Amino acid sequence: MFVSAAFAQSETHSQPAETQAVEHGAPGAAPETLHTETGVPHDAGHTGVFPPFDSTYYASQLLWLAITFGAFYLFLSRVALPRLGGVIEARRGQIEQDLDHAGRMKEDADNAIAAYEQELAEARMKAGRIAGKARDEAKTKADAERATVEASLEAKLAEAEARIAAIKEKAMQDVGSIAEGTAADIVEHLVGGIADKASVSAAVKAAS
């Protein structure tokens, strides 16, 4: 505001007398064509000093600079920086919570894996014991069945051997009778008489 007022005042003072006379309608002054929207002649803009570079306004400029810097500093210290710090603290707390949660989850996963491995080892040991017990039971059962079969076979073999011995004995008895009859027939045929059965039986027994 101070700069705008000073700039307008400077522009007014820097105008030539003829231009001021024309603007105020002084008598006897020739009208001059204006080329700007503010009503200042075209040649009047080239006179005077640009207000920001004028040493007369340095004090006001420094005052407004100090006020603006102070307001900006207060805004940063009271509003922006606390909010930014709060956001950073909130994110830091969230990150720490996430890390703690991840650590707990990892610990739970490790415990679950250890329990699973222990249960798996126990299951393998139990399966090994069950397999060994089943193998032993199957072996014992097979041995018992084999012993039963062998005993049955031995009994049948003994029975068969007894039958064979009886058949052999009977056959030998039949062979002796046949041999005695055959020998008696041969003697009767050769001698032409009836052979003595006792002599023929003794002779067959002696030969056998």
From TrEMBL:
Localization: Cell inner membrane; Cell membrane
Organism: Phyllobacterium leguminum
InterPro entries: ATP_synth_b/b'su_bac/chlpt (IPR002146), ATP_synthase_B_chain (IPR050059)
Name of this protein: ATP synthase subunit b
Function recorded in the entry: Component of the F(0) channel, it forms part of the peripheral stalk, linking F(1) to F(0). The b'-subunit is a diverged and duplicated form of b found in plants and photosynthetic bacteria. F(1)F(0) ATP synthase produces ATP from ADP in the presence of a proton or sodium gradient. F-type ATPases consist of two structural domains, F(1) containing the extramembraneous catalytic core and F(0) containing the membrane proton channel, linked together by a central stalk and a peripheral stalk. During catalysis, ATP synthesis in the catalytic domain of F(1) is coupled via a rotary mechanism of the central stalk subunits to proton translocation.
Quaternary structure and partners: F-type ATPases have 2 components, F(1) - the catalytic core - and F(0) - the membrane proton channel. F(1) has five subunits: alpha(3), beta(3), gamma(1), delta(1), epsilon(1). F(0) has three main subunits: a(1), b(2) and c(10-14). The alpha and beta chains form an alternating ring which encloses part of the gamma chain. F(1) is attached to F(0) by a central stalk formed by the gamma and epsilon chains, while a peripheral stalk is formed by the delta and b chains.
Any GO molecular function: proton-transporting ATP synthase activity, rotational mechanism
Bilayer-crossing regions: 57-76
Annotated coiled-coil segments of the chain: 99-126
Transport as UniProt keyword: yes
GO CC terms of this entry: plasma membrane; proton-transporting ATP synthase complex
Annotated region (Disordered), positions in chain: 9-45
Membrane topology label: Single-pass membrane protein
Family of the protein in this entry: Belongs to the ATPase B chain family.
Entry keyword NADP: no
Pfam families given in the database record: ATP-synt_B
Ranges annotated as biased composition (Polar residues): 9-18
Superkingdom classification of source: Bacteria
Keywords: ATP synthesis, Cell membrane, CF(0), Coiled coil, Hydrogen ion transport, Ion transport, Membrane, Transmembrane, Transmembrane helix, Transport
HAMAP family: ATP_synth_b_bprime
